[in-house]
Amino acid sequence: MFTHLLLSVAMLCKAQQRPQYTQYIFNNYILNPAISGIENYTDVKFGYRNQWRGIDQAPITAYFSVHMPLGKQYLYGNSNSFDEKGNNPMKRSYVHTYMALEPHHGIGVYGVVDRTGPITSSDFKITYAYHLGLSPKLNLSVGIAGGISRLMLDISKISLENNFDPAISENANNKLKPDLAAGLWLYGANFFAGLSAQQLLNRPISFSEDDNYNQGKQVPHVFLTGGYKFFVSDEIAALPSVMFKYVSPTPISTDVNLKFAFKDKFWLGASYRSNDAFALLAGFNVSSLFVLGYSYDFTTSELGKVSTGSHEVVLGILLNNRYKVTCPQKNW
After folding, report:
1. Spatial contact of 163 and 183, defined as CB atoms under 8 Å apart
2. What pLDDT does 211 receive?
3. Which terminus of the chain has a lower count of CB atoms within 10 Å, N or C?
4. Helix (H) or strand (E) holding 239
5. Overall average pLDDT of the 17-24 stretch
6. Cβ atoms of residues 67 and 108 within 8 Å
7. What is the CA angle 27-123-211, rounded to 5?
8. In this prediction, what percent of the chain has a pLDDT beyond 70?
9. In the beta sheet, which residues pair with residue 114?
10. Contact at 8 Å (CB) between 177 and 202?
11. Per-residue pLDDT at 320
């Protein structure tokens, strides 16, 4: 068990401290608060990720997110909405008639629980974004997220040679601290680009009241992403995208994705994460109320020798969806 503690603390203090997502492309909001209120309905999502199956106490992540625009003209109809019967935002004619959103505010909230070995991190944040039109077909949004994070150590899952180890105190399960994130999102009819950063406060990480053992700290996680939509036919869109993630002092991680959307019914895709995994993805727009996404990661790192891969499922609910759209219009 002590090995698990060393591995978990090393990851927290020197490497990635935030959960890994394969289906972030299905819910970029979880990484960038500037997406708050980008659609004209209330976007609700629930996600679950079981990473590196086959490895004892490997990471397990669960989250929920809710965001919406402010103002009845956005939740109950505006000039950018479809007709009452709904329509297919993936078809070519929609790109031709696309209009930028009028300036508006967006709000949201999300919570994430991530467990790795004996360490569990929890985050709860409230988000705000302002969307402004740069041109008739181009929007820029600026967002911020503020909240609290909690880092917990389950002492019952570790074994120590010294039961009175000064590196671990009795209040190891009560590390509640403020947290802050921010982001930008530029979007139009057939492209998006985003820049965001999490853990901006650089709070210390420790499980001891002795300052001699308080050497770790939270480090910012920076995400730069972009994607473009082009048409294979009038009803089929190809969506290549890329994301660069930087967490000091580790090298930049790169995700490359390709997604094919068939009307507004379903989509298939593949993803590659440098020096880590490649994945297959699929999504179904069950109705104008539910959407479902699933991905499976094939581990390509040394962990692949002992892991059977990673599963991730995301369920989306489209509330106040008066125009009965069955997939996102702005955040595809």
Report:
1. no
2. 60
3. N
4. strand 236-247
5. 85
6. yes
7. 140
8. 80
9. 61, 121
10. no
11. 84
What sections of 80-129 are H helices per DSSP? 92-97
What is the pTM for the complete model shown?
0.86
Give how far the C-alpha of residue 132 lies from the chain's centroid of Cα atoms, to the nearest Å.
Answer: 23
- Domains along the chain? 2-319 (2.40.160.40)
User: What is the dihedral sign for C-alpha 141, 142, 148, 150?
Assistant: positive
Bridge partners (DSSP) of residue 255 are: 243, 273
**pLDDT above 60 for 5:** no
Q: Assign 6 to helix, strand or coil.
A: helix
* CA atoms in the 13 A half-sphere facing the CB of 81: 20
| Distance from C-alpha of 319 to C-alpha of 325, rounded to nearest angstrom | 11
3-state helix, strand, coil in the chain (%, to 5): 15, 50, 40
User: Is the separation of the CB atoms in 311 and 286 below 8 Å?
Assistant: no
CB 311 within 8 A of CB 47: no
The answer to whether 332 touches 241, Cβ cutoff 8 Å, is no
The HSE-up count of residue 296 (CA atoms within 13 Å, CB side) is: 7
Average pLDDT of 213-217? 66
Position 81 scores a pLDDT of 42
Q: Can you tell me the distance from the alpha carbon of 81 to that of 89, in angstroms, rounded to the nearest whole number?
A: 10
In this structure, what DSSP letter does residue 2 have?
Answer: H
At 170, which amino acid appears? E
Please tell me the distance from the alpha carbon of residue 11 to that of residue 7, in angstroms, as a whole number: 6
pLDDT of residue 165: 63
